[in-house]
Design brief:
Blueprint lengths: L9 E3 L2 E3 L6 E6 L4 E7 L3 H16 L9 H17 L1 H12 L3 H27 L3 E3 L6 E9 L2 E5 L5 H15 L2 E5 L6 H12 L7 E3 L4 H9 L6 E5 L2 H12 L5 E4 L5 E4 L5 H12 L12 E5 L3 H13 L19 H16 L3 E4 L16 E4 L6 H4 L6 E7 L2 H9 L6 E5 L3 H10 L4 E4 L18 E2 L4 H6 L2 E9 L12
Parallel strand pairs: 7-8, 7-10, 8-9, 10-11, 12-13, 12-17, 13-16, 15-16, 17-18
Antiparallel strand pairs: 1-2, 3-4, 5-6, 6-20, 11-19, 14-15
Amino acid sequence: MAVPIPSRQIFIDGEWREPLLKKRIPIINPATQEIIGDIPAASAEDVDIAVEAACRAFSKPDSWASTSGSLRAKFLRAIADKILERKIELAKLEVVDCGKLIDEAISDMVSVAGCFKYYAELAEALDAKQRIPISIPMESFKTHVLKEPVGVVALITPWNYPLLMAAWKVAPALAAGCTAILKPSELASVTCLELAEVCRDVALPPGVLNILTGLGPEAGAPLASHPHVDKIAFTGSTATGIKIMTAAAQMIKPISLELGGKSPILVFEDVDLDNAIEWTLYGCFPNNGQICSATSRLLVHENIAAKFVEKLIEWSKSIKISDPLEEGCRLGAIVSEGQYEKILNFISTAKSEGATILYGGVRPQHLKKGFFIEPTIITDVSTSMQIWREEVFGPVLCVKTFATEEEAIELANDTHYGLGAAVVSKDLERCERLTKVLQAGVVWVNCSQPCFDQAPWGGIKHSGIGRELGEWGLENYLTVKQVTQYTSDKQWGWYSPP
């Protein structure tokens, strides 16, 4: 049964508005390659109007910034409830919009609601954290701290987890008292536009959240460089992150960046093979391999490598590849033709450089349409190969062996990226050692990819700046103000009176 796509406009100041240039972008279902609808394409002029609306909502006398955390929490919980009411509908929209399989999409909607609820709690707690006294060494002064919203924020999000990545930014920004302009990827914007409808349903004050869809150069770039935007939060490619950082630097504007990755998973010889294999697959192939933190570089001890890879292929052959709306599907379609061709080019280059495509790397024979690629396992890889060093963003796993712990660490850290890393071993003392030396913002022990609202998320090196989620995610959108009062009736006495 076809999934109907709502026809929406851009969302500014609490209202649907047609873009000034009246342009629209087609939506292509990655599983069928059919056009199933379209989204509005905002321009720089629309960005100006949205930023102006966010500025008004932030600075007017009864502004969002001046409301209590407890009031903001009520809106966040109402948004969460509406998301849960519509979770199946929203999940199906994401499936046809970006190729995500239905089970993952439903799970994502539950996570979206959970994120809004979590930041509702932190918004309430923020009220109690105002006017925190600071101990100082002079009795004639008293000092306290105010935590205030940073202002109008630009939130630029990717296509791999469309509504979830939006929630990771929108929820803490609104909890902090910021007003926002959300710019989702043009490749997957449908559920983010439905978030606008949810905001209308819960009567979120006009201008607090504005949502602009459109192309990066026409809408994203003007938003990132807008002089009245006080902060930029971006998730996406490292190349685009560099452009955003450059634009922000011209105005000394704060940024947070969650960028690319080429994360390792280290499997030692003492593991339970089946457990380690499942986590290896789960670290790379969910969401069709389109995960910034994918542990796509497998480092396996040489003593178990042959048996491990043999069983890894057996497991990979059992992964169901189908229309992502089908029950039991475990690998869906790549988001777009451009991304599909990019992945195939990575695989072709790996082969031409001397690597072995041990399994997969092609379209499944039973699927004649759609951007589908079999889970791919590549061996005989050198550390200088493109496939080992660059982010593929698809269902591609590279395999290398190691002989010693020291060699494994050196191979794991030999990358420009530093988002995630995983270590699998029954030796917990070894695991503890590795958590300290692996160069990544997130390290998983005997697992890969679990993520929780309460724990910080982000990378080092070329994988980004700052942290999302947890209390760290809220701090992204707050500034700290020191307030110091002179409490004595006596004259200060530095200058002599005339």
